[in-house]
Amino acid sequence: MHAANLWLWASLAAPSVGVHTLWNLGNGFELTVNVDSNLLSIAHRGNSIWETVSGQAFLSASAGDDEVLAANGNFKINEVDRNKCTNQKIRDVTIKSWQESGNDHAAVIQGQLTGCGNATPHFSVAFWVPSKFPDRVAFSVNVDPGTSSDVATKLYLTYRSSPSEDFYGLGAQGSFASFKNQTVPIFSREQGVGRGDQPTTLLENKDSFFAGGDQFTTYTAVPQYISSKSRVFHLTEESSAYTTFDFTNPSAVTVRYDALTVGGYFMQAENMLHGISMFTDYTGKMTALPEWVDTGAVLAIQGGQTKVNRIINQGLGLECPIAAVWLQDWSGTHSQSVSYMSLNVSRLWWNWESDTTLYPTWNEFVQSLRDQYNVRTLAYINPFLANVSTKPNGYRTNLYDEASQGSYMIQNFTTNSTSVISSGPGLDAGILDLTNAAGRSWFKDVVLDQVWSANISGFMTDFGEYTPIYPDTQFANKSIDPFFYHNAYPREWAALH
């Protein structure tokens, strides 16, 4: 995670850097570098789209490993910053060959970070206009930590904003609209129940570690924002380390990135709607929902075939159009106690085959809803595989056993076995290792044979945020750092489907 990348460019030119130099990035974009004041700015056809802050280093780094406390998909991160660099010195700016650039070149700024204790990190920052996206500027930052005993482990990128600028986005965030004056972490996790409101948060935390969450815990954290000035910033898909966006300075944004190499894009849109369109040019655009979704209600029901039939008949008898039913309990349920209340909650069996008690004729039942009522069926699935050896009404296949034998789940190298994830009392499971090609292929067959084969019309693909990051977590791809990969897992899980 913290290893410095090698910069393997062939230098085309290395002119001496004056106090104030201008570099053509292509397609009307120009980079201005003022070495004496450590100032950078990027303009497009004369209009500024990005610039650093006068009197403040645009790049910094610090030592120390962030502390992560985790249980049941709840992650609490205590940030650790030692010997944060206080300044920087630009050594040179050169034009380098760059494969992804529209004009095959990038402007590369190199220098040294200072005031870092005993460390003397060097840095490189590259800017270019991508051939795939000629309406924006891409960047890549690399910090070489050096050989100090207290080496840098993370970097900070700081640039100018406006005191009147509001910031939106950063994934599925529920507590604020604009994030002005906030510091927002980017880390996928259980979003929490209560999220700071009392007494709910306190009660949830009593039941399970950090289960109440806080104002920024979210399943879907995305390192991207769009501002009220129609400025768009986002990191690349490959830049998946833990990140925070600090908007507390009225005139600056600081991105704290928990690794030493990061990439991203700056964009200036015509308006905010155009900014969203520019962003989805990179991420891909959501396809339109099928027409049947708009033909009636989609009812979420639990309780089995008899109950589903009864509710459908009641609805249709009241002339309520029904497009589909979502039956997340198709794989069976069991009770789980909640410690702060004298009650049990219903949890699902994660074995991805139909339950013989609730849905004894699942395939035929799904088809009958379609034929008799023109009602479609939606199911449920997640990347967990629960050990169903204690399931009261039995099972046809124990997918946990199959995946364990094939080492298809994320491993614990201390025990040399599956890394068991707990989701409360009586619910222990492994999680599919998406870096294992054989495991992915096996799971695809499971989904085709045991989920889609019933002629369902879709399903909820839940979870992804539980990916373990313990010191002894091990993936099939042993080069992967669990802390770095954690944020990538939800995207990989969606891509699998």
Automatic annotation (TrEMBL):
<keyword id="KW-0732">Signal</keyword>
<feature type="domain" description="Glycoside hydrolase family 31 TIM barrel">
    <location>
        <begin position="339"/>
        <end position="494"/>
    </location>
</feature>
<dbReference type="Pfam" id="PF01055">
    <property type="entry name" value="Glyco_hydro_31_2nd"/>
</dbReference>
<dbReference type="GO" id="GO:0030246">
    <property type="term" value="F:carbohydrate binding"/>
</dbReference>
<keyword id="KW-0326">Glycosidase</keyword>
<dbReference type="InterPro" id="IPR000322">
    <property type="entry name" value="Glyco_hydro_31_TIM"/>
</dbReference>
<dbReference type="InterPro" id="IPR052990">
    <property type="entry name" value="Sulfoquinovosidase_GH31"/>
</dbReference>
<dbReference type="InterPro" id="IPR017853">
    <property type="entry name" value="GH"/>
</dbReference>
<feature type="signal peptide">
    <location>
        <begin position="1"/>
        <end position="18"/>
    </location>
</feature>
<dbReference type="InterPro" id="IPR011013">
    <property type="entry name" value="Gal_mutarotase_sf_dom"/>
</dbReference>
<comment type="similarity">
    <text>Belongs to the glycosyl hydrolase 31 family.</text>
</comment>
<protein>
    <recommendedName>
        <fullName>Glycoside hydrolase family 31 TIM barrel domain-containing protein</fullName>
    </recommendedName>
</protein>
<dbReference type="GO" id="GO:0004553">
    <property type="term" value="F:hydrolase activity, hydrolyzing O-glycosyl compounds"/>
</dbReference>
<dbReference type="GO" id="GO:0005975">
    <property type="term" value="P:carbohydrate metabolic process"/>
</dbReference>
<keyword id="KW-0378">Hydrolase</keyword>
